[in-house]
Amino acid sequence: MGKAKKGGKGGGAAAAAPKCTCDHPFKCTCGNRPERPSKGHKWDPEEQAWGGKGHKQKGASGQTALVDKKAQTTQVGGTSIQTWQKLPSALLTEFAKKEKFLKPKFKALDDKPGKYKYRVILPDPKDSKKDLFFVPPSAVANEEQAKEEAALLALVHITPKIPHERTLPEPYRTTWLTAIQQLNAKSSKTPQSQSANTTSSSSNTSSNTNNKGKGGGAQASTNLLQGARVTSQAQQEKKSLEQRKARNEKIRRHEAIRMANRNPRVTMTAKIRKIIESLLRGDAVTLKEVDEDDTTEATVEEADNDAQLSVEDRLCKEGFTPLQARKSYQSTQK
């Protein structure tokens, strides 16, 4: 009896588990496939079971744990950079990429030996005349500092509201904070706060300078905004145009004064001209003598050559009579 009971139980179990004949790894149309546990599982037709490890989560197999690296020190500036810190040039490049600008261009400017100065150009993607040029006010003794200060100057004018001090390493963090304080003090126009900010920033800079000055590395700067040049080609052309207009206006003003004060031109007859000339020479002349020469209706012979004709015609246009012009020409030929 026990054997028959055992055999009957096994036959019923085999009939209750039909195989799935579908070929799709995820979908079943025959209805013999069990429910899919998760989206990471895939149906295995040979094993007649769902395979796979499911959705990979953080900490699952195949992922390695991140280990913090040691701080790196730059060779030129001797700046210690932690894994979460970035140089100003890297921050400027990331900002340009994020805003879909062209990559910033750094160019070394010729200066005195042992002194370095850089210019950074932030190209405009649409109009090259709107490219921004940033030049620090003075040269420094470290090449890395010169390049990074140019990038800091660009960041101060483009992103003054972003707290870059959280990611900047020293001494550029101190330079950034000092420049932002000076910028805020200038905008608020409060001399007391400006003096207080300058004092605090100078104290921070002095302490940072003492730490970095012995190694000859990069140092914090307190005059990043004083005398710095921030221009574009369009602004330079506009400034040049304004200077040209001011210069032309000055020339026109002087020319107007000269024309207003010039000697007046007087038109007179030949008779009056001769009387004035004789009086200026001190000669005694009578009106009778003047009337003898004032023969405007007297006819004169034609000129002998073209030169005589041209001279007499010019004298007649100046107010002389034809007879006076002939006598004047003849007197010069003696």
Give a structural overview.
It holds the Pfam family DSRM_DHX29. By secondary structure, the chain is of the alpha+beta class. The chain folds into three domains: 17-51, no CATH class; 85-234, Double Stranded RNA Binding Domain (2-Layer Sandwich); 270-332, no CATH class. It contains ten helices and eight strands. The chain has helices at residues 2-15, 88-98, 143-158, 172-188, 191-212, 233-260, 270-281, 287-293, 306-317, 322-332; strands at residues 42-44, 49-51, 72-73, 80-81, 105-109, 117-122, 132-135, 229-232. The strands form three sheets. It has a four-stranded antiparallel sheet. A two-stranded antiparallel ribbon has the order 1-2. The chain is elongated. The protein starts with a helix and ends with a helix. 18% of the residues are buried.
